[in-house]
Amino acid sequence: MYFESLNAAWEMAGHGPFVWSAYGITFLVIAGLILIPHQRARQAEIALRAEGEREGYTGAEARDAGETGAS
Amino acid sequence: MWTLIHKFGSPPWFYRFATTAIRWLLPIVLVALVVGCVWGLLYAPPDFRQGNSYRIIYIHVPAAVVALAGYYVMAFAGLVSLVWKIKMADTAMRAVAPVGAALTFIALVTGSIWGKPTWGAWWVWDARITSMLILLFLYLGVVALFEAYENQEVAAKACAVLSLVGTVNIPIIYKSVDWWYSLHQPASIKFTGESAIDASMLYPLLLNIGVFYALFALVVMMNMRAALLERHGKAAWLREVLG
Hints:
The complex is a heterodimer. Helix content of chain A is 86%, strand content 0%. By secondary structure, chain A is an all-alpha fold.
């Protein structure tokens, strides 16, 4: 490591607040960039699965009803 | 080239490709991002003139470089959408715009934070900075335009035209530091001739530029995949994939 201690790395001879805040903001934006589409995809998947199950259920029910009707 | 465009134009093919690519790319990008940033923050030597504030370039330059390159990607998608009317090109254009805006925002904010200890001002109406601000508005304009229209085809056409017209700004941004008397320093990395930056400072910078390109590709694919899930919910191929 270039700095002698973590404290020196934190302070960076007076430039610490500038450097660390710039990195902090960048990481927040990157986290948002990754989390937003991840969440969107997850919610869409959950909705599609729920819809699929509902349709599957009614489909099976309709078939059952048909079979009972035939017998 | 044609087969590639054709493949990317197919939602089922792209969905499968993106799902696998995201799974691999996400951990690689995150690890490489941490390595690049720790290298630049803690292991690279300080600049003999700017001291430690220069360490901001390890995120500022990659964000700015990829924000500019990303605009070409968006404009190319706009061109493909206008000429060949491929729906996936609209999806790509729409996926790139917020990522480009976020990267331009990072470049502007980190540049501003760097400017305070180095130039003594948070903001200067310098040619490079002003043209980057225009880039941010162009990206945001595309995002807003997509939201403004009810009809997605009309929206895509308007966005494609805006993206293509906006490309004139990109060479202006590149050349602004040479054309005008500018406070912003000229490029330190040169493709031809020797770079004005020492290897110990250059390697973490090159790593982070690569990481930001990969991050861009990753997030664009994630946005496109999410859009496909939202839009093609009823499609048989998607049902099949989801099981």
